[in-house]
Structure formats: structure tokens, C-alpha cells
């Protein structure tokens, strides 16, 4: 009996109609300040710098999020090394 392994390759990327969102939160224990979500990381940084100027608080948690999609890849992309992960027989291959 001969086993046949079939690989299905996938890639994940940002959804074409989505944008990356940046937010920040001050980590000073007495401060509840958070930035409004923005689509521009530099704007988020500027808002944090302004908060530091007003309060002297210097530590922030910045978060970046985006909507992503996973799509099946053509075999050529996998062979060329573009794909980093594939799913084979129920196991994730690195």
C-alpha cells in the first residue's frame, strides 16, 4: 500500500477593503486615557506624545489591528517559497 500526501497551501494577508487600525492606552496606574482609533500609526504616536506633554506619562500600550483573509494559494507560490505554512492531513506544517 502506498500513501499519498496532499498538501493544500494557504496565505494570509490584509483584506483589500480593510485598513490597519492603531490605538493606544496610557499605562500610568492612575490614568484612564486611551486614544481614539485611527488608520494612521503616526497619528497615534503624535497623540501619545501630546498626552506625555500634558501629563508627563511616558509608557503606553499600542495596539494595531486589521481584518485579514486566508486564501488558498496556487501551487507555484508554494514551490517558490512564498508560502510559509501549509495544511497537510490535518497537521500544520511549518
SS content category? alpha+beta
How many helix segments? Answer: 2
> How are strands sequenced across the largest beta sheet?
4-1-5-6
* Amino- and carboxy-terminal Cα gap: 27 Å
Radius of gyration: 21 Å
Helix content: 10-25%
Order of helices and strands: EEHEEHEE
- The dominant shape is elongated
* Major sheet: 4 strands, antiparallel
Unreliable spans: 89-94
| Strand proportion | 25-35%
Q: Would you tell me the overall average pLDDT?
A: 82
Number of strands: 6
Describe this structure in words.
The structure is a single chain. With 94 residues, the chain is α+β, with helices and mostly antiparallel strands. The chain has two helices and six strands, in the order ββαββαββ. Strands 4-1-5-6 form a four-stranded antiparallel sheet, with no helix packed on it. A two-stranded antiparallel ribbon has the order 2-3. Mean pLDDT is 82; it is low at 89-94.
Amino acid at each position: 500500500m502506498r500513501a499519498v500526501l496532499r498538501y493544500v497551501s494557504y496565505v494570509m494577508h490584509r483584506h483589500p477593503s480593510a485598513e490597519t487600525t492603531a490605538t493606544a492606552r496610557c499605562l500610568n496606574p492612575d490614568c484612564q486615557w486611551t486614544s481614539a482609533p485611527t488608520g494612521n500609526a503616526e497619528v497615534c504616536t503624535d497623540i501619545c506624545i501630546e498626552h506625555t506633554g500634558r501629563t508627563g506619562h511616558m509608557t503606553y500600550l499600542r495596539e494595531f489591528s486589521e481584518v485579514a483573509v486566508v486564501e488558498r494559494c496556487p501551487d507555484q507560490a508554494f514551490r517558490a517559497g512564498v508560502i510559509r505554512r501549509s495544511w497537510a492531513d490535518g497537521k500544520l506544517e511549518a
